TrEMBL record:
PANTHER family: CHORDIN
Organism lineage string: Eukaryota, Metazoa, Chordata, Craniata, Vertebrata
Protein's UniProt keywords contain Disulfide bond: no
Coiled-coil regions listed: none
Protein known as: CHRD domain-containing protein
Pfam families cross-referenced by the UniProt entry: CHRD (PF07452)
Domain CHRD: start-end pairs: 47-170, 176-303
Length: 306
């Protein structure tokens, strides 16, 4: 047959090591007088999906409502190296721990896989680096959305922010998913909102002056109470930061769930200028906070639009 499937159940630790480093090869050969052979290296699943995480206080192991936000993007290479870029904002106190973790084994027993704390810079609020020792099992868990990222602070030693590391399916939008997105937080709303929700957004403006946007939110309330459940209906808006003039908001989209995306076509010259200068914001409003629950300042430095 041209295709066949088999499960190898007895890979030893050395073979698993080779697998994790992209050094395990599979060969297919034909029988007969003139045998031919093709071969290739086995790598992690290839896709245009982005591996990312939104960290919120609502998703912390001990859920809170701080109005802070964390945001991370990852890039997995064939040789088992994972690049990461993490940013946090609006925290109640200094970061004391930044870790990639499994689900807790017991209620309060955190299971730390990798510690990024030494890469964190207080000055920038970011951690940028590479983790070059992923095991095959952990690569599998990463691609199965089974890993988490946790931010511990002086006031919340177990974790003030936490997020699931998830693959975000390719959307077809022209947004720079390989760059850190704009963090969205209650901390950035004016006046600040103490919320368990947070988010991040990628935006870009194309040659036609159309705004492409992708917004991911996390930590929205998960209860079944009808009054609170209505809270999951979010409205994503874009506007200019000048607060004296809040009527300059444009609705991007209403959404249910954790993400909103689309293309805004008829943008005013003023809004394009604000985007260019970094004086525009994206905000998500909910029934609980109709004036804005989370917000972030956006700009498009790569704008092709003039």
């Amino acid at each position: 047959d041209p295709d066949f499937a088999e499960v190898l159940t007895d890979l030893n630790s050395r073979e698993l090591f080779w697998l994790s480093r992209g050094q395990l090869e599979m060969a297919v050969a034909t029988e007969g007088q003139d045998p031919r052979q093709i071969s290739g290296f086995i790598t992690g699943r290839k896709s245009c999906d982005a591996i990312q995480s939104v960290m919120s206080s609502g998703d912390a192991l001990i859920p809170g409502k701080t109005g802070g936000v964390g945001s991370a993007i990852f890039n997995l290479h064939d040789n088992g190296t994972l690049d990461y870029q993490v940013q946090v904002a609006g925290l109640t106190s200094d970061v004391v721990g930044l870790t990639i973790e499994l689900k807790p084994r017991r209620r309060n027993k955190r299971s730390i896989l990798y510690d990024l704390t030494s890469e964190y810079s207080k000055a920038t609020g970011q951690a940028v680096g590479s983790w070059s020792r992923l095991e095959a099992r952990h690569i599998h868990m990463l691609l199965q959305n089974e890993l988490f990222i946790n931010v511990a602070t002086a006031h919340s030693q177990e974790g003030e922010l936490r997020g699931q590391i998830k693959a975000l399916p390719y959307s077809g939008l022209e947004v720079p998913r390989d760059e850190l997105p704009t963090p969205l937080a209650g901390h950035f709303v004016s006046p600040p909102v103490r919320t368990g929700a947070s988010g991040h957004a990628w935006v870009s403006v194309d040659k036609q002056c159309h705004l492409h946007y992708e917004i991911i939110v996390a930590g929205l309330s998960k209860t079944d109470d009808v009054a609170v459940n209505a809270h999951l209906h979010g409205l994503a808006e874009i506007g200019e930061l000048d607060d004296s003039n809040t009527n300059h908001k444009r609705l991007l989209t209403g959404f249910y769930g954790s993400q909103a995306q689309g293309i805004l076509k008829d943008m005013s010259v003023e809004l394009l200028q604000h985007l260019d200068q970094g004086t525009a914001f994206i905000q998500v409003s909910t029934k609980m906070n109709p004036q804005g629950e989370i917000r972030g300042r956006v700009c498009d430095k790569r704008s092709h639009c003039h």
